[in-house]
Amino acid sequence: MTTPSDPEPGLSAIMSERRHLINLAYRLLGSLAEAEDAVQETYARWYALSREQQDAVESPGAWLTTVASRICLNLLGSARVRRETYVGEWIPEPLPGEQADPADRVTLDESVGMAFLVVLEAMTPAERVAFILHDVFRYSFPEVAEIVGRSPAACRQLATSARRRIRDAHAPAGPAAAHAAVVRDFKRAWETQDITALIGLLAPDATAIADGGGRALTFLEPIEGGERIARAWVELAQRALGTVTLLERTVNGQPGLVAQRAGVVETVYAFALAAGRIKHIWVVRNPEKLRPWKTD
Question: 233, 76 in Cβ contact below 8 A?
Fold first, then answer.
């Protein structure tokens, strides 16, 4: 029998897997809140096992990864149905550069960039899981097959298809300093309502997409075209004059902006660049997705 002075063997090792599981689940789901729920469910299933069943698991870390991945695979299937009734566009949950809990800290690399996550959203659940497990976390195809429930050859094809989607839709991120300079210039032009400068910073075929989730006022349809976006942003500046503060912040590992009102983050802006100009702007205003920004 385990007593307070006789802690469960391997407890620290089991809990040390939490950060890996959070990192995996966030990339699979695009939502930190859903990732935390998936990891919580994973641990609940582990502790539902008897001591004998736990002892029989050769690699608890591999067991936890398998269970978490399968939970995420199921959630991805149901998420597609839920997002059909979502008010407006659905954008992955943005992450701040500073994250409070070390155990839940997501590593901010290219695989969590907003542009990357948006491409992942277009994949089938099986494609996404196979690609993330193999290409990002370096699991072998036999290991992926065990998790996804398909043959290694089928998983290889899924990852290849996902890789093709990434290549076709996602331009590699340029130097962070250059990205930051463009975002800084955009902020300055926006604050001064310099429409000519804004148009010059935006690609002619740029798009802007907003996510309010029906909980915050924003535009429901994507805005297409650099000039249309520039005019919309000048209008936003005129409406918010004197009440909103724009701050440069890291968003999913890349330079972005946040808008604060009375010290509270109301909006997070993520950007993707192509050829030195802004190609995409993602505007997240759904307060449920801004929970990690409350201490900004």
Answer: no
User: Of all helices (H) and strands (E), which one includes residue 284?
Assistant: strand 277-284
Give long-range contacts, CB 8 A cutoff, 24+ apart: 181-185: 182/271, 182/273, 182/276, 182/277, 182/278, 183/248, 183/255, 183/256, 183/257, 183/271, 184/248, 184/255
Q: Please enumerate in sequence order all residues whose Cβ is within 8 A of that of 249, keeping only pairs 6 or more positions apart, or say none.
A: 96, 97, 256, 257, 258, 268, 296
Helix (H) or strand (E) run with residue 184 in it? helix 176-191
Identify the CA nearest to 192 among candidates 237, 158, 155, 240. 237
Q: What is the pTM of this model?
A: 0.90
Please name every residue paired with 245 in a beta bridge, in sequence order, or none if there are none.
260
In 3D, which of 112, 137, 25 has the Cα closest to residue 74? 25
Where do we find the tokens 């497990």? 133
Using CA of residue 188, residue 192, residue 198, residue 200, what is the dihedral sign?
Answer: negative
Among residues 176, 189, 193, the alpha carbon closest in space to that of 255 is found at 176
Number of continuous H segments (helices) and E segments (strands) in the chain: 12, 6
DSSP structure string for 221-275: SPEESHHHHHHHHHHHHHHHTTT-EEEEEEETTEEEEEEEETTEEEEEEEEEEET
Helix, strand or coil for residue 105?
Answer: coil
pLDDT along the chain (296 residues), means of 10: 47 86 96 94 96 93 96 90 84 86 73 92 94 95 94 96 86 79 97 97 98 92 98 93 91 95 95 95 96 76
Task: At 195, give phi and psi (nearest 5°).
Answer: -65, -35
